[in-house]
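PROTEIN DESIGN WORKSHEET
SECTION A - STRUCTURE
LENGTH: 134
TOKENS:
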């Protein structure tokens, strides 16, 4: 009997699990206002498309969080779908109840967040998030 080399390629289930962990770390960092962690979790070209349609670059987003224009008090996940969209690429679509203060006004929004993640070696990085309502 010949010994088989173990399969070291990540499976779709591995990709999904890794992307979900990175996504939840991203949400937690937003709640904590931890822009250093967010900087590491987001691609340099990351964009957030707001429910208004405004496409905000990463640097502006983090700057506004540091300045207190965006403060996330809580983000409650109400559903999460995970889809493979290519080799080492995953799209997560979640429904959240997001309690946030935006430019001085606090409210709770029902947000649908579609987030694209890609794997760089063993690390999952967010490329973009599109926020709409549900």
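SECTION B - SEQUENCE
RESIDUE ASSIGNMENT:
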């Amino acid at each position: 009997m010949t010994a088989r080399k173990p399969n070291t390629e990540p499976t779709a289930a591995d990709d999904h699990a890794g992307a979900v962990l990175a996504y939840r770390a991203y949400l937690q960092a937003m709640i904590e206002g931890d822009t250093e962690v967010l900087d590491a979790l987001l691609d340099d070209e990351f964009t957030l498309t707001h429910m208004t349609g405004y496409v905000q670059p990463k640097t502006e987003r983090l700057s506004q969080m540091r300045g207190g224009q965006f403060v996330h008090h809580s983000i409650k996940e109400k559903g999460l779908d995970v889809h493979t969209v290519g080799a080492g690429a995953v799209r997560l679509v979640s429904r959240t109840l997001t309690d946030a203060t935006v430019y001085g006004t606090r409210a709770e929004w029902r947000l649908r967040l579609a987030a694209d993640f890609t794997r760089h070696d063993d690390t999952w990085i967010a490329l973009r998030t599109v926020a709409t309502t549900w």
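SECTION C - NOTES
Residues 48 and 61 are 8 Å apart (CA to CA).
The mean pLDDT is 93.
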